[in-house]
Amino acid sequence: MKIDFFSAKKYDIDFFDIANKTTGFEINYHETHLGPHSVNMVNDADAICVFVNDKLTKAVIEQLAQKGVKIIALRCAGFNNVDLEAAKEFNISVCRVPAYSPQAVAEHAVAMLLTINRKTHKAYNRVREQNFSLNGLLGYNLFGKTVGVIGTGKIGKAFIKIMLGFSCKILAYDVFPDSELEKNGVTYVPLNKLFQESNIISLHCPLTKENHYLINKESINIMQHGITLINTSRGGLINTTDVIEALKSKQIGALCIDVYEQEETLFFKDLSLEIIDDDKIQRLISFPNVLLTSHQAFFTKEALEEIANVTINSISKIDQNVMPQKDSVMLT
Ligand code: NAD
């Protein structure tokens, strides 16, 4: 089994080399993204392994099929970057890692919320400069606040459990409500009611054609003035231009984002010496009430171990024609 592995970082290589010790697949690590510009690098591979910002359009998938690729292994949960219909058409199996560590992402969302609210990132720098003033560091109690959670799958549920620990009231919206959460005091409401009544909103649904720009001028305008908005899901759920306007008008009081709609040209790279040709991200970074991390919510030791083990195991099973469980790991 030969695998061409795209968007490879040192930490990926470390964890995959350990996971691959017993299987001994030949893995060719490429630092670049997979897309129309790089598909020619695939050479004699049976499988390719990709991450969130690799672009698997129909044209890319067609070329992979012509090169004899049989498996696309996504080492992530989301699959909005893959044309699954094309994969089916060209008879390529697509697998993913549906639940490597929902707690990793949920805990990062909470970490962002606590940081932006209590301004510990600013306090840390202040104290290092012997500035012990509290001016500008005022936060609010999470106790008793209403938190709206959109998407109550694995990550949304883990996030809700933490927020219930803060004694927050939880309003939720999901196309499939979860009865266990309802028993724990979570109230499912229509989306508009969630927008209107929440003090904090956290997004945990996948990006689909239907919910692209779910957070836009109209939805923001019916939210509470000064809302705290958290997105650790996918950048396309938020219309960045509308969010910037709402930050300027103070309708949005704080924004925490681990994902960004144009992230593929920026995230996971050190651009500290570059001129960034993306005015929207520069504007976002300029707000004192915006906390931006570069798709790191998943980034824990436990998650990386699980991602590597599940991916290697899935490729191995597909190779042996023993498919991993349908609807979770297998997408085609
Ligand atoms: P999941 O499949 O367990 O849960 C998703 C939930 O969203 C499901 O309950 C589903 O019914 C619901 N849903 C689907 N469409 C919806 C809609 N239009 N409105 C409301 N709810 C909807 O997925 P998960 O493991 O909880 O992951 C959620 C998302 O988190 C992923 O799709 C991915 O985009 C993102 N994610 C981000 C990171 C990161 O590092 N930032 C890591 C992993 C996953």
UniProtKB/TrEMBL annotation:
PROSITE patterns: D_2_HYDROXYACID_DH_1, D_2_HYDROXYACID_DH_2. The keyword Oxidoreductase applies. Residues 10-319 form the D-isomer specific 2-hydroxyacid dehydrogenase catalytic domain. Keywords: NAD, Oxidoreductase. One of its GO terms (molecular function) is D-lactate dehydrogenase (NAD+) activity. Residues 110-297 form the D-isomer specific 2-hydroxyacid dehydrogenase NAD-binding domain. InterPro entries: D-isomer_2_OHA_DH_cat_dom (IPR006139), D-isomer_DH_CS (IPR029753), D-isomer_DH_CS1 (IPR029752), D-isomer_DH_NAD-bd (IPR006140), D-LDH-like (IPR058205), NAD(P)-bd_dom_sf (IPR036291). It comes from the Bacteria. Pfam families: 2-Hacid_dh, 2-Hacid_dh_C. Belongs to the D-isomer specific 2-hydroxyacid dehydrogenase family. This is Hydroxyacid dehydrogenase. It comes from Pedobacter psychrophilus.
